[in-house]
Specification:
Layout (H helix, E strand, L loop, with lengths): L2 H24 L5 H8 L3 H28 L2 H20 L4 H9 L2 H4 L3 H10 L5 H9 L1 H20 L1 H22 L35 H13 L1 H17 L4 H32 L3 H21 L6 H14 L3 H12 L5 H16 L2 H11 L2 H46 L1
Helix pairs in contact: 1-8, 1-9, 1-10, 3-5, 3-17, 4-5, 4-10, 7-17, 8-13, 8-16, 9-10, 9-13, 11-17, 11-19, 12-18, 12-19, 13-14, 13-15, 13-16, 14-15, 14-16, 14-19, 18-19
């Protein structure tokens, strides 16, 4: 199988994995009520199940990252898919609330397995094409949410939540076989211009002593820091938006659905087109992707402010402006991910990505709780606006500072690769 065909086969498999994994992961939301009723769980206990999954996922991010930089990435991703299938099956057959808590929290192990996908993409595709590929793959997140909602609403009342989890668990097991046999590993750094002409490129593997060097990359430090704050709005908007529409805007379930479906689809469009815009900007400037990210953050903040100010009776105007807001919010995501690979050597990219995801999870873990506290004092609208705008302002400042160091850090990474290539030819 030639490399060009192989990489597109991998992209299709990765998209299927992310789409169906996100479907399984996000099913817990629409299936919350029947699960709580069966096990007689309180809101606090159900929240503890979700928190347990997030905590375990955060712990496993650096573990997965280091393993991906040391061993064959497709095999590890196949293992993650197998873990997804098994833990979901354990959730489906859980006889007690305690067993369900343990089995569902353990799904956090595979939730943190995505860094391997990112680094394989960075080795399959040259720098100028990466953001659009990331954007395409991240399109699976909102589509997975919609697919999960469809499964829950149409099949849960008829067959029960356990059958749905048995089905999605089986998908995880089947995909583990597809990944194991269908995705081929590739030497780290294969698509970098300095190394792409070397036919028998040897894979460089991460060493423990290399890890502290990541923190010496100044722009990477700022990208790590923006990740800590940047996910706060996502968690708040995702967790509280339905209740905000229901309680403070007095929308009916039908109105909420007609409002949220186009908004979620626009999030998907923002992921993909954000990657396309980032690649186009990269052709003109090395900092182009970060500029697109910064523009998305600023425009998202502006349109969220306008959207929340729309009077309650103007439902159509609110729906349109919310969709516009949702388009701008994800523009940064594929470009920040790609920018990390622009300053980090190939053998430590999974580790770098896992650190960024770990900090993002850590930073956003308490966002829903903070929003709830603010809403009790004031309103959910105030909570959504205060937390989101504050986080985006901090993120914009951090990214602006990071841009000043980005060119130099990229040049240093390229110089290291050129030196590596020269050693190989001499």
């Amino acid at each position: 199988m030639n490399n060009k065909y192989q990489r597109w086969v991998a992209v299709v498999i990765f998209f299927l994995f992310m789409l169906l994994h996100q479907t399984d992961r996000l099913l817990i939301g629409p299936l919350t009520s029947p699960i709580m009723e069966e096990f007689n769980l309180s809101e606090v206990q159900m929240g503890g199940i979700i928190t347990g999954s997030l905590i375990l996922g955060s712990i496993f991010y650096p573990i997965w990252g280091f393993l991906y930089d040391r061993f064959a990435r497709p095999k590890l991703l196949a293992l993650a898919s197998f873990v997804w299938g098994i833990t979901t099956w354990f959730s489906a057959i859980a006889p007690t609330a305690k067993f369900f808590l343990i089995s569902r929290a353990s799904t956090g192990i595979d939730d943190s397995s995505y860094p391997g996908i990112g680094t394989l993409i960075s080795d399959y595709f040259p720098p100028a094409q990466r953001s659009r590929i990331f954007g395409f793959l991240q399109l699976s997140i909102p589509l997975g949410y919609l697919l999960g909602l469809l499964l829950a609403l149409n099949f849960s009342p008829r067959y029960g939540w356990r059958i749905i989890y048995l089905f999605t668990g089986a998908i995880g097991l089947l995909l583990s076989l597809l990944i194991f046999f269908g995705v081929k590993d590739i030497p780290r750094g294969s698509s970098e211009p300095q190394l792409s002409s070397i036919n028998d490129l040897e894979t460089t593997k991460v060493q423990w002593k290399n890890l502290p060097d990541l923190l010496k990359i100044r722009s990477l430090r700022y990208m790590f820091l923006q990740g800590f704050f940047g996910v706060l709005p996502w968690q708040v908007i995702t967790f509280w938006s339905f209740r905000y529409l229901e309680v403070e805007r007095n929308y009916t379930p039908e109105t909420i659905s007609s409002t949220m479906v186009p908004a979620v689809l626009m999030i998907g469009a923002g992921y993909f087109l954000g990657g396309v815009f980032g690649d186009l900007a990269y052709k003109y400037s090395k900092i182009g992707r970060l500029v697109v990210s910064l523009a998305g953050i600023i425009l998202g903040a502006v349109f969220l402010t306008i959207t929340l100010a729309i009077p309650l009776e103007k439902v159509f105007a609110f729906r349109i402006l919310l969709s516009i807001t949702c388009f701008f919010i994800p523009l940064a995501s594929p470009n920040i991910a790609t920018s990390v690979y622009d300053v980090v050597l190939p053998e430590v990219r999974s580790t770098a990505t896992s650190i960024q995801y770990f900090l993002g999870n850590l930073g956003s873990a308490f966002a829903p709780l903070l929003a709830g506290a603010i809403s009790e004092i004031s309103s959910l609208e105030t909570a959504l606006q205060t937390i989101s705008l504050s986080a985006w302002l901090i993120t914009a400042v951090i990214l602006t500072i990071g841009i000043f160091y980005f060119r130099n850090d990229m040049d240093m990474m390229h110089a290291a690769l050129e030196a590596r290539a020269s050693e190989r030819f001499n």
